[in-house]
Amino acid sequence: MKVSDLPYNEWASLLASSGATINTEPFTINVSSNLSLVSEGLYLLYADYEIFTEHDYFVDFYVTVKAPRSIRRWYRPKVFFSYDGSEPFKPLPQQQALPVFEWGLNWCIATSAHQYLMIHAAVVEKAGKALILPAPPGSGKSTLCAGLVSRGWRLLSDEMTLIDPINGQIVPAPRPISLKNESIPVIKTFAPDFVFGPESDETHKGRVSHIRPPESSIIRAHETADASIILFPKYVAGSATQFESRSRARTAIELAENAFNFNILGKEGFGLLTSTVANCDCYSLEYSDLDEVITRLDHLICKVPDVEQVTANA
Amino acid sequence: MVLPDHKPAFRLSDYDGLFSVLDDEILVYQPSSGSIRLVDELGLELLNLLQKSPQSIEQLIAAIKTNFNTSSVENLDAAILNTISQFQAIDIIEPDV
């Protein structure tokens, strides 16, 4: 059963009571909330996710996004995020409840899912080949990710690239794409069919809104992909689309700096990281024209040989 | 780091799995700090020499001057000493005692 198969009233009452258990592959989460901002937002953004109604599923993360019962409910209302009963963050203004849920869940994964090498990077797929987009905040990573997804690339993740140490494959973890500030109207114009969640103003990242992931990306969330291209994008207003090859070694160093758990995985993480980078073409990109850069990336990903082909030619 | 006066030979430490060669560059992983270092061409040449056998600083300098295009390296002796110090600091090499 999908979230959207439930009538909204049932969904909201589930969230307010035992919580809803949602399959956000590869993680199962149980979320509860007494805030309509959260229940409405999740009903919109997670509409196509599977919901478990039985109680025999292993839940990776029990999270709660709630308003306090004290006077804080009315005076400058705040929102609390809790994970397995603890509250790792200071309360934030209640208007930010939906981003708080997304950030909190990201934090849960980043601090717990050490069965993967986790890199702070968006990742999308086409023809079985993954394009990894690491970049600092404000670089245009999510804008490019959203643009690619709107033109048929599969969303694997907007926030973290999960690499499976067993086979080096990229493991999808598709969740809503987070857009900030100027990128919100840019993508609303570029991809008018996308479903946007509510906008939250004055967060520490500025104005934030989330995009509902395409249903096809959720349905295919169990299909891994080969790491093929690592691209460091940078949006520069008015710039021409410029690709520049990067050294694989320097790319590996930068990815390690952007990994959530590189130090935890130690020697195994180093081996996994360098073997992943060794199989990828690495570029820096400056762009301002989304249509043009997507056309170029469509061609670029098709030129990358399949892993089987590389092995056969070796 | 100060190199000892008695001019010891150096050898590679047990580095299995801590190096990775990507194209013509080499990455070294230091488990104790979790950091990755990029080894330049000179460093790579020194590691190649030490892989063959333990060598003293003087032997390394002589071999590099003979076999390596040194035109791009200013003050070669100091550059080699510096690289050896760095390698020793991150435990890639050790005195051959």
Lay out the secondary structure:
The complex is a heterodimer of chains A (314) and B (97).
Chain A: H1 8-16, E1 20-24, E2 27-33, H2 36-45, E3 50-52, E4 61-66, E5 78-83, E6 92-93, H3 97-112, E7 117-126, E8 129-134, H4 141-150, E9 154-157, E10 160-163, E11 170-171, E12 177-180, H5 183-190, E13 200-203, E14 206-211, H6 215-219, E15 226-235, E16 242-245, H7 248-257, H8 262-278, E17 281-287, H9 290-303, H10 307-313
Parallel strand pairs in A: 2-4, 8-15, 15-17
Antiparallel strand pairs in A: 1-2, 1-3, 4-5, 5-6, 7-8, 7-9, 7-10, 10-11, 12-14, 13-14, 16-17
Chain B: E1 9-12, E2 19-22, E3 25-30, E4 35-39, H1 41-52, E5 55-56, H2 57-67, H3 76-89, E6 93-95
Q: Would you give an account of this structure?
A:
The complex is a heterodimer of chains A (314) and B (97). Chain A is of the alpha+beta class. Chain A is 34% helix and 29% strand. With 97 residues, chain B is α+β, with helices and mostly antiparallel strands. Chain B has one domain: Alpha-Beta Complex (Outer Surface Protein A, domain 3), CATH 3.90.930. In chain B, 38% of the residues lie in helices and 25% in strands. Chain B has helices at residues 41-52, 57-67, 76-89; strands at 9-12, 19-22, 25-30, 35-39, 55-56, 93-95. Chains A and B meet through helix 7 and helix 8 of A and strand 3 of B.
Question: Beta-strand percentage of chain A?
Answer: 25-35%
User: What is the ordering of alpha helices and beta strands of chain B?
Assistant: EEEEHEHHE
The helix-and-strand class of chain A reads: alpha+beta
Q: What percentage of residues of chain B falls in helices of 4 or more residues?
A: 25-40%
Which chain pair has the greatest contact?
A: A-B, 17 and 13 residues
Q: Please, what is the average pLDDT of chain B?
A: 82
- Total discrete domains of chain A: 2
Name the overall outline of chain A: globular
Q: How many individual helices of chain A?
A: 10
The Cα radius of gyration of chain B reads 13 Å
Gyration radius of chain A, in Å: 20 Å
Share of helix of chain A, binned: 25-40%
Adjacency order of strands in the biggest sheet of chain B:
5-1-6
Secondary structure tally: strands of chain B: 6
- Which sheet architecture does the biggest sheet of chain A show? 8 strands, mixed
Helices of chain B, by number, come to: 3
Main beta sheet strand tally, sense and closure of chain B: 3 strands, antiparallel
Oligomer category: heterodimer
The gross shape of chain B turns out to be globular
Order of helices and strands of chain A: HEEHEEEEHEEHEEEEHEEHEEHHEHH
